[in-house]
UniProtKB/TrEMBL annotation, chains A, B:
It holds the Pfam family PDH_N. Signal peptide: none annotated. Residues 5-293 form the Prephenate/arogenate dehydrogenase domain. This is Prephenate dehydrogenase/arogenate dehydrogenase family protein. It comes from Asaia spathodeae. InterPro entries: 6-PGluconate_DH-like_C_sf, NAD(P)-bd_dom_sf, PDH_C, PDH_N, Preph/Arog_dehydrog, Prephen_DH. It comes from the Bacteria. Keywords: Oxidoreductase.
Length: 293, 293
């Protein structure tokens, strides 16, 4: 018994193509794969990789027979694309997405929802610094969290189907409130990315001769930062703009903590410095105990 | 022909024990290994690991026959330990270290130098988040940079011997001015570490229920930061305090860049956001071309 008859992915980049690969690797999870994108080059790759039974630029046609439509477009495109396809979806179908931010997406999308279509937003916390349909792989979601943030209106049966779908992708499921989701992700993912992008910019503004040497001597600290910083600009622009409240709040907190650390270094306050470093080690140990490191 | 007859390591932690392991793995580079530390537990481990021919708590005795003494103690201990051992070193011997900061160490150490002892500071840019004599390994320095910052007084022959020593460790050599060294390292290593320690502290001050979830959901961004943050507190306290000018200067620059990014997000200034992210990608590409990533 398949999870869905016809399953439609719109925007098959790193996440979407990983879902498609997983579905191809485990035949029987769905009956038929429909893939849509506005970019013909992306669709060409999807055809070459044989990741869809129907591959089309026509989003409205793509969704009309789908039992589940999964939007894998950048966060800023979720609501507009949803608005365009919702009138063409069939009654009883489920709409889901894979967006990294929730509150603003839900607010923008809600006015377009239909009573006969369940919307169950999901955020698989997985990814690499690579993007596009060639970057995906079938095991991307294994043992990673997938956070579901359904509204109170969503039928339990639809929530269960999306949860089971992500379990079939290999993920672990947690259901939470959209605002709570946004604060957690601002702290564990969006702020680290903002910092990584920023520090690369800081290095880039060093004098010409210095910059060359920064590249020569990038120690492990900087290397890890730049790995994060290699991510897709459009995707992260949308995440920052769509989670600005939670992100600016944790950034403000971080900036105060960094200023306090600077003051401790300026004053030679060894106790504060050692305490700050030791907290890092404690958090690290907790992560290892949680088997996330 | 060995590089040195008697070679003495003081403070065999991650770096020092890696040097010792490399020397054991390549017999003939030196004739005899002398290892000293003030901590009997460390010396016990060095004996168990068979990393020294003579292992002693007596630093003055340890150095008296050495042709080269390498200080692998934390940055803040380099000058005091050097002051204590220099009167006991034999004429013509070389004093070196592995400190991550240069200007303040050189300033503190210079008054204690002798005309008949060459001081050739070296900074192998290698390490892991682990510390202590058990954390070392013989290949730690392979293909990593080792930055030499000798003063104008150091004889070229002594500089060449230390350069050849580090080449035998597997490292690539660059010679530069101490101030230049300190700015480069502030940017590529000390600032990223300061940020990593700080962001862990920021996460740690979230409300109790949030913090537990931060640990549960630590995405790859936060994971990379905490790996860096697991490093040794004493070592990093000393680095921050001994490179405070260069570090506070790049931190200030970074804070301004982060504030500009926050302002762009607040205003919805897509152009600035995308430019900042794209710079990160450019830097990343340069790193890959330099084969450091």
């Amino acid at each position: 018994m398949p999870l869905f008859g016809t399953f439609c992915v719109i925007g098959p980049g790193l996440i979407g193509s990983s879902v498609l690969r997983r579905l191809r690797a485990h035949p029987g999870l769905v009956d038929r794969l429909v893939v849509a994108d506005r970019d013909p080059a992306v669709l060409e790759r999807i055809r070459d990789l044989d990741l869809g039974d129907i591959v089309t630029e026509d989003m409205q046609k793509a969704v009309e027979d789908a039992d589940c439509v999964m939007l894998c477009v950048p966060v800023g495109a979720i609501a507009p694309v949803a608005a365009a396809i919702l009138p063409h979806m069939k009654p009883g179908a489920i709409l889901t997405d894979v967006g990294s931010t929730r509150r603003s997406v839900v607010e923008a999308l809600t006015p377009h929802l239909r009573d006969d279509i369940a919307y169950v937003p999901a955020h698989p916390m997985a990814g690499t610094e690579h993007s596009g349909p060639d970057a995906g792989f079938a095991t991307l979601f294994e043992d990673r969290w997938c956070l579901l943030t359904p509204s109170g209106d969503a039928p339990q049966a639809s929530i269960d189907r999306i949860a089971n779908f992500w379990r079939a992708m290999g993920a672990r499921i947690r259901i939470m409130d959209p605002d709570h989701h946004d604060t957690i992700c601002a702290m564990v993912s969006h702020l680290p990315h903002l910092i990584a992008f920023t520090i690369c910019g800081t290095a880039d503004t060093l004098a010409e001769d210095m910059r060359a040497e920064v590249l020569d001597f990038a120690a492990s600290g900087f290397r890890d930062f730049t790995r994060i910083a290699a991510s897709d600009p459009t995707m992260w622009r949308d995440i920052f703009l769509n989670n600005s409240d939670a992100l600016l709040s944790v950034l403000d907190r971080f900036s105060q903590d960094a200023a306090a650390m600077a003051e401790a270094i300026r004053k030679g306050d060894e106790k504060t410095i050692v305490e700050t470093i030791s907290r890092g080690r404690r958090i690290r140990r907790s992560l290892i105990e949680n088997r996330q490191a």
